[in-house]
Amino acid sequence: MCITVFIWQAHPLYPFLLLFNRDEFHNRATKPVSWWEGNEILGGKDEVAGGTWLACTRQGRIAFLTNVREATPLPGAKSRGDLVLGFLQSKKRPMEYADEVLKEADQYNGFNLLLCDLCSKTMVYVCNRPKGEPLVQEVSPGIHVLSNAQLDTPWQKSQRLGQSFKELMYKHSKDEIPVKMIAEELMTDTTKADKNSLPGIRSFELEYKASSIFIDQFDTPMGSYGTVSTSALSVKTSGEVSFYEKYLAKEEWKEHIMNFQIEKMEVEREDDSFRASSFSSY
């Protein structure tokens, strides 16, 4: 399922900061966050299909993805994780790559894809659902939440996460953000949605169990399912990147953090204030 909240170009010290919960079957082979592709891409790796859900590069490119909840998957669909990898491997601008993705969008199951180039201060959102009506748009500065519908769809858990994140951004509007602390505080919330607010796309039982920000493990015919990792990716105006991950490995929670410097990151601070007006919906 997955859920993520991020702030984009609206904090004086952090042009980008993201929290991300990955929900998956516990038996799906996954590598934790590490350097790969010749030490150029940093992210987790899906060892089944070979792609990733969240990763970044030394050149300041970031991409991440969630699935769109739908009743019937497409047989023989291409792996959505390759869309993230493809952008990070390319030198195309976010909008240019998004236009390329649109040409074959119908070959994938439903996806939400965010493409970011920090050096050009550009972020683009791509969604291939509803079928036949793909969406591409630039992402505005502010706070955004993405779950398993289109960007900023007001599902209850998305609204709760967005509001809590906004409050913490206010609290740390001019200083360093304790990224690991806010990840632990916000992304472990197991509060379920009101039963009458579920979208009704899949079975009631599945939607209810998956309606929290952090999904407790539950059994399905395909195996145990739930939140298997929490990530926090932050980028400072100086180009310093911190990638924290807490992940489940053989039913044991582990954590680590990776740091690096973006090459040729230009520091341009137009405004030292916190842009609260950019996300008044939360």
Task: Summarize, please.
By secondary structure, the chain is of the alpha+beta class. 17% of the residues lie in helices and 35% in strands. The strands form two sheets. Strands 1, 2, 10, 11, 12, 13 and 14 form a seven-stranded antiparallel sheet that branches. Strands 3-4-5-6-7-8-9 form a seven-stranded antiparallel sheet, with helices on one face.
Can you give keywords for this protein?
alpha+beta, Penicillin V Acylase, Chain A, seven-stranded antiparallel beta sheet
Write up what this structure looks like.
There is one protein chain. The protein is α+β, with helices and mostly antiparallel strands and 282 residues long. The chain has a single domain, classed as Penicillin V Acylase, Chain A (4-Layer Sandwich). Helices cover 17% and strands 35% of the residues. The chain has 5 helices and 14 strands. The strands form 2 sheets. Strands 1, 2, 10, 11, 12, 13 and 14 form a 7-stranded antiparallel β-sheet that branches. The protein has a 7-stranded antiparallel β-sheet with strand order 3-4-5-6-7-8-9, with helices on one face. Strand 11 (218-220) and strand 12 form a beta hairpin. The two termini are 22 Å apart. This is Transport and Golgi organization protein 2 homolog. InterPro entries: TANGO2 (IPR008551).
